[in-house]
Structure formats: C-alpha cells, structure tokens
Amino acid sequence: MKQKTISKAEWDWQAGRRIVADLNQWKNEYGYMEEPVIRPDGEGAAAIVRTDEAEYSIVSETGLWEGRWDKIWKLNYGADQRLSALVAEMGTWSMAVDDETWEESFDFLWTPLKSSDGSHIAASVQQGRQYAAVLNGVIWEKTFFAINDLAMAPSGDKLAAVVQTVALQEGDIEKFQSGCFTVAVNGESWHQNFVNLWDVRFSADGQHVAAAARSSLYDYTVVVDGKSWNQRFDGLWEPLFLKDGRVAVPGRSAGKWQLVVNGAPLWSQAFTQLWQLVEDPVSGRVAGVCAPEFGKWTMVDNGRVWGLRFGDMVMDPVFSPDGRRLACTGKSGHAWTLACDDKAWDHRFEQIWTPVFSPDSAHVGCRVRDKGRYAVYVNGKAMVSDLDFACDPVFSPDGKLVLIRGVGGEGGAGKVFREVLEIG
C-alpha cells in the first residue's frame, strides 16, 4: 500500500530524546537478530529476526510481521517511512513492503532501488535464466541474457540498466570484442552494442540516459540515448548530466585526466586523477575530486584547485543547497576527517560518512566511527558521542535543529533513540 511521504516540516522537532525501540528485548525474545535499521524520521526501528529454525521475519516498534520467509535481505526504509526487504520462500524471491509481498515472485532479485519519495521500488531480476528489471512488482516485458548497473529516474517511474543482448559462449573472444552489451530503458534496448558499459545515469527530468562505454578493448566513449560521442578516451569515470542538459565526464587521454563536457575539455587543467563530479545546484558549476600530482588528493571547484591536500584519498564531494559551499571527506594515513571550503576539521576518525548540509547551508555534519564507537558531528563539534551505532544527521527545515538517530548512549546499550538538539 502506497503511503504519503511526510515532509520534514511535519516531523516532531521538539527538543529532547526519546527511546523508540529496545533491541535487548528483541534479542531476548528471538535469539538471532541482524543489524537494525532506523526510520528516516527516527520514530521507529526494525530488524530481521529468526522466528523458528530456518524461518525469519521482521520486527519493528509496532510488532512482529506476519510474514515468514526462508531468507530476508536488504531491509531498509524509504522516505515515505515504508519498510521493505527482499524475501525468499521455497527458492523464489519477491519484495515485501510493510508486511505485504508483491504478487509476482522470481528466481532471484537484487540491487533494490527506491525513488527519492519512497513511492517506487525496483530491483534487478532473474527469471527462467533470463534477466530484466522489475518496478513496483511489474517485470519488463523483454528479457536479456544478463543485466547489471540498474538505475532509476529521479521521478521513480523509469529504469535503465546495462543488458546483454547477444548470447556469449565461454571463450568466444571474437564475439565479445564485437560487442554484446547495450543499455535498456524500461526494457527497450539501444540499437548499438558495445564491449561493455557502466555508470548508467538519468538526466534530472528522466528524459535522457547516459553511460560510459568501451567501444573496443582500448577505446572509451560516452553514449547518450544510444548515440556515441565522436571522441575516444583511454579511460572514463561516471558521467554527470548538468542542469543545462549537457553531459560532463572525467576523461583520460595521454596519461592525464580532464573534465570533458559534450566531448570537449571544459577546464584547461589536466590532472593525475579526476573523478566523482558534482554540480552546484544553483549556478551549475562543476567540482570534483582530483589529484594534481601523484599521491596528493584534494578538490577542484570550477577549475580552481583547493590548497588542502590529503595523502591517501578524498571522497564524497557535496555542494551546499545554496551552491556556495563545498564539502568532502579526506584520508591521510589511517585517519579520516571532513573538509569544507578548503579547510579540514581538527578531529580525525577511523571512519567517516558523506557530509550533510543544513537546508540553509549554514551547517555541515556527518556521522563518524572511532575506536568502535559512533558519534555525530556538526561544524567540527560532537553533538552526540560514544554510541553503539549512529545514522546520518538530519537538519530541520530552518537549519536551527538537528535530528540524531542512534543506538546506545545515555539511554543505555541496545536502546534505539531519536534526539533533537539545537545547533549552538
């Protein structure tokens, strides 16, 4: 049953902490329990539990589901707070959503995807040694010899994936090199085949699809709506649709990487490495992770390279909603930190997750793990620490409050809580 997404403005933003579930009780009752998931609004939690020998179900703050299955996989919440998981019974797989299973079952399901509002759910599917995709329980009419890299349009009503359209026997090198793979959109495949493709992406309006491809064993190009660029490269990373409809991609030629837009370099600089492109949501400028020289990692924003350097890795670039700020995570040695506007936080951690900006762009936070314990930081300061587990922070619409979702801490080990704190 489809459930209306409740906007963040309608969530409970009253300051304070509440316990929403007790994992200790679930463990005591069922014995076996997998890692829990916490609702986006923090109002509940759920976990996979074993109800009998080789029989599993899902328990949440509202109780135990009626459904019983042989296997359960990929339990998670959508933005509409609906809880779903891939479930198997008697060797066939389906999707269970709030204790209701799709009418159709399949030989296998994997890579579940959800739309941003949670209303659409999809997965890759195997049925009778053929492969396709399924959206809201309805499988594509056309099937293929293989499928991978499933992608969903932002609206959730379209799917695209790399598919194999030519049967390929083991060791058939000539046929492989001639091209057996293409992209299918809602089951309709492009007319041109390639050696292989990856990083399938939709445009913001869902009307166009791009992918990186190998046109031969040694030549790489970008394909948009089935048409290849004329340009060839030595290597490519993930393409990015820009606000104006153009496609940007990091491309490698003569041993260096450049930002290429619709086949032509956009910046004059070339890098030892360039990838993970992001776009300013307001002005449309492009930024990405780069290595100006070997072993030195940083960010490049609209062609300007940050002065900050990390020795091992930079990941997860994110623009603020107003486009004026840029954040990422960085690693030197065994320590991670968050960097924003070319400045790194003072604290270092064993693990760090993608930065999150407040809607007003004034604050940036993330969850971290250090010495086996979790914490949530905002603007370089710990909001909550020494937790058994934590989720990413969620900021209130006005940016003045932050919602913390986690396990343990002041409420006690095994207690799932939600806490709203003012940002000082």
Automatic annotation (TrEMBL):
InterPro entries: 6-blade_b-propeller_TolB-like, WD40. Gene3D superfamilies: TolB, C-terminal domain (2.120.10.30). SUPFAM superfamilies: DPP6 N-terminal domain-like. Pfam families: PD40. It comes from the Bacteria. This is WD40 repeat domain-containing protein.
